[in-house]
């Protein structure tokens, strides 16, 4: 009996063990299949479920002026997107709910939220899961949108099934989502618009994740885009079932490296002075375009650069192409009489002339090469100083003849004409300088007065700066330094001498001649300043169009610097087709005067003209005693 | 039960007790540690959100400051308040000559024009 029972027990035990072994064996086999055979596939699935990589977008660097004033900065905003597959048949309801918060007409919004299906190459039907509703939405508005969605009422009053409840919760919380973005803000609106430039957005997909990248389109935003952009960071982490980050399981956390801050040589104060004075002149002369540039002649640092028409940097889309064009570097025109400085300084540098040498200006009419050359006034003998001071075309043509063609061309090129100045702004053109074979017989008499050549205002300003600084052609400088977000200087730009064009003595003599321009005997007395000696040159040139000169259209300009013997600031003013006057002396010189007066005060440039003694004091009765009368 | 067995029993009974106790304590401390890590994670997240918010607010203030200190805004305010500010004349400007540190205190020079002291 006992043996029988023992046998049965053993048999049961055997089957139990066998069963257990089979089960464990099956489990082990499955484990091997999942962990070994399908390892890669399963690993991928497991990672997809829990591991997330978040891209950390770098903050775009700021643009500041030389005094640290903020000219461009970035604001964190969001791109609001929707998943129509979660919205399903409720597109109209969702559209009505969020329409007051999204800048889009209701019908268009409803259409965007309606799910769209498409068939892929494998014949599988897919539903669109991504539509962009609005870009550049700020944090507050996104919170309002989230709140509106969270309170979205179900259209049916009946009790919902469990599945419907889950779907409705997903719609409320996940149908709208955001992607990080940046909004570029320009606190000074249109100030220095052509220098700062603006940005656009690019959508890029990296490692399957979509990102919106801000990219410079124009101005410093474009040229310094790489430095401003910074470096992306990332965070590799695990998420829970509700896709919330589990901070304790962060695997890699690489912070984004913010873009460098670009500090310009520009001074917002000077820029404002230029723009306000230019606005006043625009009202008076209603030109097609106006350009002003202010720079330090010794270093080439640009303190202000304004081009009209202008535009608001916060809304560049509304500006016309013409308004967005930086005319100072991209427009060429015949410079007119301001170009006389080239041949006169070349003649002085070559030792062919002295300031006191006299030239016969033929009573204002001179025949050369079968064509007549005229002066505005009937001058007889004029010294070289007066050729500049009174802006004689005939006098400067005769100086050019002394130099001969090759030398004139060499000096034109040495002063930087026909080449880009190298300013760190996009869209600069070379201008037009003809080679000798293209010259006609009269070219040598026309070039000194700024004809048969096309230059940009920046080229002309830099040539004048070479006179002011003792003969050195400087590269215009717009970027002073790059700083990191803690203010540490990373790169410091230094002034760059392109070449020595003329000797210091020749430059000094040219400055002496230029001083006579702003005297009552010169062409530009309206540019003279009360407390500073000014050296400068007026220019008036006919505007060329298709098929020749446009009747009644002129370019008027004045380029001057002060104090003449220790130049601190150079200001070049040009107007394209001004009305109510067209001479450089009447249109541009007064603008120079007003800008220079305010700028000298703002920059505290010491006066070099002694103030007149107060006249009122001389007529005051002389008091002998301060004691009261008895 | 023999005397030997009786003496041995408490010893045998003791080590599983201590083993269980140690294992239990290790388990509990692990749980506590995990809880602390989780709490710390939540606090880190909270602080990160707060830091982001503060950074946003700071950036907004910087933008606001830049807007109200822009030359255009300052000029408009001067006009609005009717301050009638005018440019100072050179003889009204007092220039401070600052010596290198450690030298005599700064000297006030009133200049009428370059290089010449005012009378």
Report what the structure shows.
The complex is a heterodimer of chains A (630) and B (119). Chain A is an alpha+beta fold and 630 residues long. Among the domains of chain A are: 77-117 and 125-178, Alpha-Beta Plaits (2-Layer Sandwich); 268-602, DD-peptidase/beta-lactamase superfamily (Beta-lactamase), CATH 3.40.710. In chain A, strands 2, 3, 6, 7, 13, 21 and 22 form a 7-stranded mixed sheet that branches. Chain A has a 5-stranded antiparallel sheet with strand order 15-14-26-25-24, sandwiched between helices. In chain A, helix 14 (340-349) packs across helix 16. The longest helix of chain A has 36 residues, at 2-37. Chain A is elongated, with a radius of gyration of 37 Å. With 119 residues, chain B is mainly alpha-helical. Chain B has 2 domains: 3-85; 87-119, no CATH class. In chain B, strands 1-2-3 form a 3-stranded antiparallel sheet, with no helix packed on it. In chain B, a hairpin with a 2-residue loop joins strand 2 and strand 3 (116-117). Chain B starts with a helix and ends with a strand. Classes of the chains: A alpha+beta (630), B mainly alpha (119). Chain A binds chain B through residues 69-70, 73, 75-76, 139, 185, 187-189, 191, 245-248, 268-269, 271-272, 276, 531, 563, 566, 597-598, 601, 604, 606-611, and chain B through 37-38, 40-42, 44-45, 56, 59-60, 62-63, 65-67, 69-72, 75, 87-91, 93, 95, 111-114, 116.
Summarize the structure.
The complex is a heterodimer of chains A (630) and B (119). By secondary structure, chain A is of the alpha+beta class. Helix content of chain A is 35%, strand content 24%.
Key words describing this protein structure:
heterodimer; A: 630 residues; alpha+beta; Alpha-Beta Plaits; Beta-lactamase; 5-stranded antiparallel beta sheet; 26 strands; disordered C terminus; B: 119 residues; mainly alpha; 2 domains; 3 strands
């Amino acid at each position: 009996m006992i043996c029988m029972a023992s046998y049965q027990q053993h048999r049961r035990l055997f089957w139990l063990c066998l069963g257990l072994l089979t089960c464990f064996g099956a489990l082990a086999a499955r484990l091997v299949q999942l962990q070994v055979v399908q390892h890669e596939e399963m690993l991928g699935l497991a990672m997809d479920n829990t591991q997330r990589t978040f891209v950390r977008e770098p903050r775009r660097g700021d643009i500041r002026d030389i005094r640290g004033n903020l000219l461009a900065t970035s604001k964190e905003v969001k791109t609001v997107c929707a998943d129509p597959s979660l919205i399903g048949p409720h597109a109209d309801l969702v559209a009505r709910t969020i329409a007051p918060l999204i800048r889009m007409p209701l019908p268009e919004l409803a259409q965007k939220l309606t799910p769209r299906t498409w068939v892929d190459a494998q014949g599988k039907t897919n539903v669109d899961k991504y539509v962009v509703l609005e870009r550049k939405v700020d944090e507050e508005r996104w919170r309002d949108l989230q709140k509106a969605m969270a309170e979205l009422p179900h259209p049916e009053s009946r009790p919902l099934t469990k599945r419907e409840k889950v779907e409705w919760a997903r719609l409320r919380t996940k149908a709208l989502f955001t992607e990080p973005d940046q909004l570029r803000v320009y606190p000074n609106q249109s100030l220095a618009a052509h220098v700062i430039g603006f940005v656009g957005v690019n959508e890029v997909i990296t490692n399957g994740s979509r990102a919106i990248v801000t990219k410079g389109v124009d101005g410093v935003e474009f040229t310094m885009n790489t430095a401003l952009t910074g470096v992306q960071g990332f965070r590799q982490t695990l998420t829970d079932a509700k896709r919330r980050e589990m901070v304790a399981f962060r695997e890699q956390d690489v912070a984004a490296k913010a873009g460098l801050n670009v500090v310009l040589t520009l001074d917002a104060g000077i820029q404002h002075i230029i723009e306000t004075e230019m606005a006043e002149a625009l009202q008076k002369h209603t030109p097609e375009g106006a350009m002003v540039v202010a720079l330090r002649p010794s270093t080439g640092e640009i303190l202000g650069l304004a081009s009209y028409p202008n535009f608001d940097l916060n809304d560049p889309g509304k500006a016309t192409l013409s308004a967005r064009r930086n005319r100072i570097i991209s427009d060429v025109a015949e410079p007119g009489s301001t170009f006389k400085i080239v041949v006169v300084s070349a003649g002085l540098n070559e030792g062919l002339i002295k300031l006191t040498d006299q030239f016969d200006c033929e009573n204002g009419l001179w025949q050369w090469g079968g064509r007549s050359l005229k002066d505005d006034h009937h001058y007889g003998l004029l010294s070289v100083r007066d050729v500049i001071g009174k802006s004689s075309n005939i006098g400067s043509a005769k100086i050019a003849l002394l130099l001969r063609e090759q030398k004139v061309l060499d000096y034109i090129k040495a002063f930087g004409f026909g080449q880009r100045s190298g300013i760190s702004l996009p869209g600069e053109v070379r201008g037009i300088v003809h080679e000798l074979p293209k010259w006609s017989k009269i070219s040598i008499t026309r070039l000194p007065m700024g004809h048969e050549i096309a230059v940009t205002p920046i080229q002309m300003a830099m040539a004048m700066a070479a006179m002011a600084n003792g003969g050195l052609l400087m590269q215009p400088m717009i970027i002073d330094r790059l700083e990191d977000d803690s203010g540490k200087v990373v790169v410091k730009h230094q002034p760059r001498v392109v070449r020595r064009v003329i000797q210091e003595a020749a430059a000094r003599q040219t400055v002496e001649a230029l001083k006579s321009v702003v005297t009552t005997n010169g062409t530009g007395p309206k540019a003279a300043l009360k407390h500073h000696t000014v050296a400068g040159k007026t220019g008036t040139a006919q505007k060329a169009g298709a098929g020749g000169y446009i009747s009644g259209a002129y370019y008027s300009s004045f380029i001057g610097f002060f104090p003449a013997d220790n130049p601190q600031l150079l200001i070049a003013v040009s107007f394209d087709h001004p009305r109510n006057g067209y001479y450089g002396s009447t249109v541009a010189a007064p603008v120079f005067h007003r800008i220079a007066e305010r700028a000298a005060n703002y920059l505290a440039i010491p006066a070099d003209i002694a103030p007149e003694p107060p006249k009122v004091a001389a007529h005051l009765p002389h008091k002998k005693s301060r004691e009261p009368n008895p | 039960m023999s005397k030997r067995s009786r003496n041995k029993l408490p010893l045998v009974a003791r080590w599983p007790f201590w083993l269980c106790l140690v294992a239990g304590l290790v388990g509990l401390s692990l749980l506590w540690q995990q809880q602390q890590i989780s709490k710390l994670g939540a606090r880190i997240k909270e602080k990160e959100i707060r830091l982001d918010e503060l950074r946003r607010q700071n950036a907004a203030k910087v933008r606001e400051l830049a807007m109200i200190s822009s030359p255009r805004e300052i000029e408009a305010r001067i006009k609005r308040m009717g301050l009638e500010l005018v440019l100072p004349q050179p003889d009204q400007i007092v220039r401070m000559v600052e010596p290198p540190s450690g030298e005599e205190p700064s000297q006030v020079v009133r200049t009428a024009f370059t290089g010449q002291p005012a009378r």
